[in-house]
Specification:
The complex is a heterotrimer of chains A (about 450), B (about 375) and C (about 350). Chain A is α/β, with parallel strands linked by helices and about 450 residues long. Chain A folds into two domains: about 250 residues, Rossmann fold (3-Layer(aba) Sandwich); about 130 residues, Response regulator (Rossmann fold), CATH 3.40.50.2300. Chain A has 14 helices and 17 strands. In chain A, the strands form four sheets. A seven-stranded mixed sheet of chain A has the order 7-6-8-11-12-16-17, sandwiched between helices. In chain A, a hairpin with a 2-residue loop joins strand 9 and strand 10. Chain B has a domain of about 260 residues: ABC transporter involved in vitamin B12 uptake, BtuC. The longest helix of chain B has 25 residues. Chain B starts with 6 loop residues before the first helix and ends in a 5-residue tail after the last helix. With about 350 residues, chain C is an all-alpha fold. Chain C has one domain. A two-stranded antiparallel sheet of chain C has the order 1-2. A two-stranded antiparallel sheet of chain C has the order 3-4. The longest helix of chain C has 30 residues. Chain C starts with a helix and ends in a 14-residue tail after the last helix. The chains are: A alpha/beta (about 450), B mainly alpha (about 375), C mainly alpha (about 350). The interface between A and B is large, with 58 and 52 residues.
Chain lengths: ~450, ~375, ~350
């Protein structure tokens, strides 16, 4: 094997051989193995665990996250064009692995179910020796895996999770989130809604009946009522209802002139499609055009909703049409590798991997307590969202968020969202105490 | 008390216990030798064993058994939160709660038979799932699942010692229940459950259940009231599920509503049929196979495949990786589907029939396997 | 008042959809006695007939990539590229047109499935039927996922059916506001027509009569020298077509993905069993009953009295009906009770 020139396959083969090597009887070694902390890397490589949905409704999102992770690993190991390593303000990473060790990875399927996700994460930790777990595309899964990692002393870098709880009520010392949350969506979206639709509006909420839906509903209601909007009604809908028509019909005669859909994924695709079918967007109420708002967008959802999403306002964490150097560098590097632009889920997962690697490099060790200290309060730029702070109090990133509109003039198949406004970090910053929760102690654990 | 167990039964029991206890070593070459998966093997083995008492003996196909698993989990986690991190009370609470729930649901559902019974149980389980996910969130913590928090009361624990800084671990009188001790705890429970199941299969009560299965009307005509027997079987089977649920919580203190969804109920049905309905060992094997695919096949990625096929010449290797890639990683469902079809088409009695046939082919006329086979084939699934 | 009328309308619409989705299952499960867990997969395959037909019509003709462009520009659909406005009109009507594709495709799938697999399972225990059909459903689903991905693929109704009908005007109510989407009304009419056709086939044709006789007593009909096996194959084929058509026409209401069948599977079983095993009219009645009650249970006024009632209403009705009526609404004695 030629070590000078790492090709993709050679790399994959070796990282896997290493995974297989780690898989060999931990039971024989675990008793005798002396280690300072959980899964301390011993050889010349370190294992990251990528835990994404590969089956179920979010499989496509998960596949995109996995692509981003693989790209991040390549860049960390000095392959490819280096991606965001060149724009990232911290220059600790040199593209020679992390702390001199090559980065290898293992993958697993969360099935978007808490139990399956925890099983998969446990496999990575107990059997495959993962030093860090990252991934997920729903808040339920993120909170569940974050709890597990916290117990085992493994750092969890959350993927796509939007609930306030992840870094609020359920925040954990070992869990970190780069993605924005429902509160920020409300703060970002509110002023734009007032600007576009006026301050005298009557809103009707349809909300997915589980924790994420509730936190989003609360955040949006707070933000819009502060602007002078009135909330006519907030109706809870069952998860995965499929046909939402029985919840949409009451909207027709409710006197509301805005419909807010606090749904995500398939539910949002369905409820939006059906709401448009019921002629809501052609309606006039109180002398105003009826409007539909979808507070959280993703490109894949926009794809699923097709024409129905054109002109509809919402928020995203990041979009590939951003023009700053970092975003462009990431889109270029991802696009050249896979032939299409990355989604926001891919972006946040890529950034999380780099941030973790960088924190290890700066800490000079993989020991979790030291790495946590490096991440807490870390201020950086050059990752596509402008200057960003990893706040120490709740492990939430504070950075720009985007208000977007479904694009009705697409230049390409992927040109689904148009950026309306880049909302600055100050507007989105809040007091960490409003959501409660406790991080817990920063003590070392040995699995 | 053990009079009705034959020598072969004892051999089977000892063999089964041995296989379970040494599984950390024997399963390591297959990539399954790590605590979390081994625990799951035992837990779902218990779940399937219990399901088989109802379905295998009486022929009543419950499509809502996951509800009892879920109730057991919730009860166990609440026991951790309110009283103590010791697993013994939590297991007792879990079994009791699931048993009570099973009495209520069984009493209502057993008024109907056949498919009507199946739909009644399905309806109850789906109602439990939907409510647990939404309006019952104060009790179940909905989507996120019920977890331990730093400010749980834990009155018994806190009465004896001041709480530590972080979250406490579940324990058995001081032995930490994560990792291998957790596995051996579950394995012990599985072995006890296996023994109890065997006793039930061989007891007059078991005979009665089988008689109900073969012709309930005839039983009724002879003046037997079959309902109490059915209800007892239903409740026992629900308590097994409750035990499985509380063990899930004991090894990993979290309880989520998804555990009660119809897909989870369907999974235990599939495990039992896959292994062999009405056999003793079959359901445990079925549970093992499905959990193995879920955890191991799903974890293979392109890298692992390249390593596996590295011995092949380059061109062939790429083809092999592409082909195998369809069945592992995000394609593990496909493998599972194909296996379901192959087994049911070629081995109508599930994996146990396959084993019996193999034994026959090899000319091995070991009495234990024949005894097991006769237990299986004498009671076809319906 | 408006709200009540519109909820009744919605309930009827939902009910028709439920009845149509469950109709294929009633034929196979309620009458042939096969527990077909692949019914949802047939529904999904129907939906993907529409998706594939649309994909063929809009096969992208890729304009060349401009210098320095990273991603290819938006493609022109094949039909539009070749036939201009007429092509665009055909694309616009792709969902209704794909019925023409779906009928032969679904019939073929149904016949192959019955001949190749299901017929060997008529005499096997229900447990085996569950395992084999569930296995097949997963395989079919995964193949579709490999080809089309996991994300929903939107399909639109023809433009002429977009928008809503003014029901209030039809009813002669001048000051009321009652509208309903055209496409949903069309789905209602379509469902009624398909259900009626299947009903007529079974009740008013000799062929159907023999099938019904065979369902009651397979052996006697066989003894009369009638090849009942062949007729069962045909019934299975029809069931597949009905399931497929339900899927095709549902695509503009629910953007289909590979999992859409599983989502409807439980509901179909509940409808069939609540209706009563072996009864077509029972299934239709159950569909309407569940649809209307679900619609009302979702109203805010009802939800404020019984929180969460809309989450469980379908199952609650199922429990109540099965406890008060031993064989569902219109079930026959002796079918699937042992």
């Amino acid at each position: 094997m030629n070590f000078d020139k790492m090709n993709r396959r050679g790399f994959l083969t070796r990282s896997a051989a290493l995974g297989a090597g780690l898989a060999v009887p931990t039971i024989f070694t675990s008793a005798s193995r002396a280690q300072d902390y959980c899964n301390m890397p011993k050889g010349d490589s370190v294992v990251f665990g990528f835990n994404v949905p590969q089956t179920g409704a979010y499989a496509d999102e998960g596949a995109d996250e996995l692509r981003a992770y693989q790209l991040a690993v390549k860049h960390l190991n000095g392959e490819g064009d280096g991606g965001l390593l060149s724009t990232f303000t911290s220059k600790a990473l040199k593209g020679s692995g992390v702390l001199g060790k090559k980065v290898a990875f293992v993958t697993g399927d969360t099935q978007t179910k808490s139990d399956a996700a925890r099983d998969s994460a446990k496999r990575m930790i107990e059997k495959e020796g993962a030093i860090m777990i990252t991934g997920g595309s729903s808040s339920g899964v993120a909170v569940a895996v974050q709890g597990l990692c916290n117990e085992m002393g493994i750092i969890f870098m959350a993927g796509l999770t939007h609930s306030n709880d992840t870094t609020g009520k359920d925040k954990k010392r070992y869990g970190f989130r780069h993605f924005f949350n429902a509160y920020m969506s409300g703060q970002a979206l509110g002023p734009v809604l007032a600007e576009e639709y006026g301050t005298e509006r009557r809103a009707y909420h349809l909300t997915a009946d589980y924790t994420w839906g509730w936190t989003q509903e609360e955040s949006i209601i707070n933000a819009t009522e502060n602007l002078g909007w009135e909330t006519v009604s907030a109706v809870r809908t069952p998860l995965g209802a499929g046909d939402f028509s029985q919840y949409i019909t009451p909207v027709l005669n409710s006197g509301a002139d805005v419909l807010v859909l606090n749904h995500y994924g398939k539910d949002m695709v369905n409820s939006l499609t059906q709401a448009v079918q019921f002629g809501l967007r052609d309606k006039q109420v109180n002398g105003k055009d009826f409007q539909i708002v979808v507070p959280l967008f993703s490109r894949l959802m926009a794809q699923g909703a097709g024409k129905n999403i054109e002109g509809i306002l919402g928020t995203t964490n990041w979009n590939w049409s951003l023009q700053d150097d970092a975003s462009q560098a990431f889109v270029k590097s991802f696009g050249e590798e896979y032939g299409f632009p990355p989604s926001q889920a891919a972006h946040t997962c890529y950034v999380q991997t780099l941030l973790y690697a960088d924190a290890c490099e700066r800490a000079g060790t993989f020991a979790a307590p030291e790495v946590i200290k490096m991440l807490e309060g870390f201020e950086f730029d050059g990752m596509g969202n402008g200057p960003t702070l990893y706040r120490a109090e709740d492990h939430q990133c504070f950075k720009k968020a985007l208000v977007v509109r479904g694009n009705d003039d697409k230049q390409s198949e992927y040109d689904l969202l148009k950026i309306v406004k880049e909302v600055d970090r100050e507007t989105l910053t809040y007091d960490p105490s409003i959501f409660g929760g406790e991080l817990g102690p920063n003590d070392g654990k040995s699995c | 008390m053990f009079a009705n167990l034959s020598r072969n039964d004892w051999l089977l029991f000892l063999g089964f216990s041995l296989v379970v206890l040494i599984s950390p070593w024997t399963l390591t070459p297959f990539g399954a030798g790590y605590p979390a998966l081994l625990q799951k093997f035992c837990i779902f083995g218990i779940f399937a064993l219990g399901f088989n008492i109802l379905f295998g003996l009486t022929g009543y196909l419950s499509f809502g058994h996951a509800a009892f698993l879920g109730v057991g989990s919730y009860a166990a986690v609440w026991s951790f939160k309110l009283f103590t991190m010791n697993v013994v009370p939590s297991v007792i609470f879990g079994i009791a709660a699931a048993g009570l729930f099973a009495v209520v649901i069984g009493f209502i559902s057993l008024r109907r038979s056949g498919i009507y019974f199946s739909i009644l149980t399905l309806a109850f389980a789906q109602m439990s799932y939907n409510l647990a996910y939404s309006v019952l969130t104060p009790i179940t913590n909905g989507e996120t699942g019920l977890q331990l928090t730093l400010n749980d009361p834990r009155i018994i624990d806190n009465a004896f010692a001041a709480p530590g800084a972080g979250l406490p671990q579940t324990n058995l009188f001081g032995i930490d229940m994560s990792g291998y001790p957790g596995f051996y705890f579950c394995a012990g429970a599985l072995i006890i459950c296996f023994f109890l199941t065997m006793r039930i299969f061989r007891s007059p009560f078991g005979m009665m259940l089988r008689a109900i299965k073969s012709n309930q009307n005839r039983m009724r005509y002879t003046g037997f009231n079959t309902k109490p027997y059915l209800l007892t079987a239903f409740v026992i089977s629900g308590m097994y599920a409750g035990l499985a649920g509380s063990l899930m919580a004991a090894t990993d203190p979290l309880a989520g509503a998804e555990r009660m969804q119809w897909t989870a109920s369907g999974e235990v049905v599939l495990m039992t049929i896959l292994g062999g309905v009405g056999t003793l060992v079959g359901p445990v094997l079925g549970a093992g196979v499905i959990k193995y695919f879920e955890n191991i096949f799903s974890s293979f990625n392109e890298g692992t495949l390249h390593a596996t096929f590295a011995f092949l010449p380059d061109g062939l290797e790429t083809v092999a990786v592409k082909l195998a890639g369809l069945f592992v990683g995000d394609g593990w469902h496909l493998t599972l589907g194909v296996i379901f079809m192959l087994i049911v088409i070629f081995l109508p009695g599930g994996i146990m029939e396959g084993i019996a046939r193999l034994a026959k082919l090899a000319g091995v006329k070991r009495k234990s396997s024949r005894a097991e086979l006769s237990a299986g084939s004498a009671q076809p699934a319906e | 008042m408006d709200a009540i009328i519109i909820q009744i309308l919605n309930g009827l619409d939902k009910g028709a959809a439920y009845a149509l989705i469950a109709l294929g299952l009633t034929l196979v499960f309620g009458t042939l006695g096969v527990v077909n867990f692949a019914h949802g997969a047939l529904f999904m395959l129907g939906a993907f007939c529409a998706v594939s037909f649309n994909a063929l019509l809009t096969w992208p003709i890729q304009p060349p990539k401009a210098e320095g462009q990273l991603f290819a520009p938006k493609a022109i659909p094949f039909m539009e590229h070749q036939f201009g406005e007429l092509g665009a009109a055909i694309v616009n009507w792709s969902v209704p047109l794909s019925i023409l594709i779906a009928i032969p495709v679904m019939l073929a799938i149904g016949l192959i499935m019955e001949r190749g697999l299901i017929r060997h399972f008529y005499k096997r225990p229900h447990a085996d039927q569950i395992l084999v059909t569930f296995g097949m459903a997963i395989v079919v689903q995964e193949i579709v996922k490999k080809i089309f991905g996991a994300n929903p693929i939107p399909q639109s109704a023809p433009d002429i059916f977009n928008g809503t009908a003014n029901i209030a005007a039809w009813l002669g109510m001048t000051d009321a506001f009652i509208v309903y989407p055209w496409w949903r009304l069309i789905y209602f009419v379509f469902a009624a027509a398909v259900i009626g056709a299947v009903f007529a086939f079974l009740n008013f044709t000799t062929y159907g009569m023999v099938v019904r006789a065979g369902m009651r007593d397979r052996e006697t009909v066989g003894l009369l020298g009638i090849d009942i096996e062949k007729r069962f194959t045909v019934v299975f084929g029809i069931a597949a077509v009905v399931a497929g058509l339900a899927g095709v026409m549902y695509t503009p209401i629910l953007p289909p993905d590979y999992h859409i069948g599983m989502d409807f599977l439980v509901l179909s079983f509940v409808v069939v069993v609540v209706g009563g095993m072996g009864s077509l009219s029972g299934a239709v009645l159950a569909g309407f009953l569940l649809g209307i009650l679900q619609s009302f249970a979702s109203m805010n006024e009802v939800k404020s009295i019984f929180p969460g009632i809309d989450q469980i209403i379908i199952y609650l009705i199922a429990v109540i009906i099965l406890l008060t009526m031993p064989r569902g609404l219109m079930g026959r004695a002796g079918v699937m009770e042992d």
